[in-house]
Amino acid sequence: MGLDLNRGCLQRSVKDAGGNPTGAWIAMYTGVPGDNFAGADPGVYYDDVGNEVPEEVAAAAGFDVKRHALERKSKERRIEFDKAEAQRRIEDERALQAELEIDVSGRTESAIARAKDSGFELRHVGGRHWNVFDRSGKAVSEKNFLKPDAVKLLETLELSEPAAPEPEEREAASA
């Protein structure tokens, strides 16, 4: 197989205890500057035919294995963060799309109109967060929701709980 020299690699010769070269070469891919070092693989070492070798052999060749191990962990964490960030952006895009669809469908206005009759109110509480409040002004849930979820909660509440009449209505009904 051999090493891919176009990927950019740093090669060092292995030395014996007396500091004399043994003839063996160890390499680590460093990437190339024009490609933003995309091919870099810090902390992974190869012999001259492309087989991975242990860190002890790389240390004998003069590589700073401790620093490269930290660079490898940093690269792995960066990759994990990038994946999580990409997933978060996808979820945000889906939530925004759902919010737009629920507004276009007219469900929001319909639910708000019906909720006023049943004593609940949908309120914007900042950012993209919404919550449902009862007649006394208390939030129905401690958790705030994205608009589509808040509308679903509002629709569920108006179906499950009949609103208590206002105090003036109770007095008028008893008179």
**Which of globular, elongated, flat, extended, rod-shaped describes the shape?**
rod-shaped
The parts where pLDDT drops under 50 for at least 5 residues are none
The oligomeric state is single chain
Order of helices and strands: EEEEHHHEEHH
Number of helices: 5
Q: Tell me the structural class.
A: alpha+beta
Largest sheet, in brief, is:
4 strands, antiparallel
The number of E-state strands comes to 6
Mean pLDDT, all residues: 79
Strand order of the largest sheet: 1-2-3-4
The total tally of domains equals: 2
Helix content: 40-55%
Q: Could you give the distance between the termini?
A: 96 Å
Percent strand: 15-25%
Our Rg estimate from Cα atoms comes to 32 Å
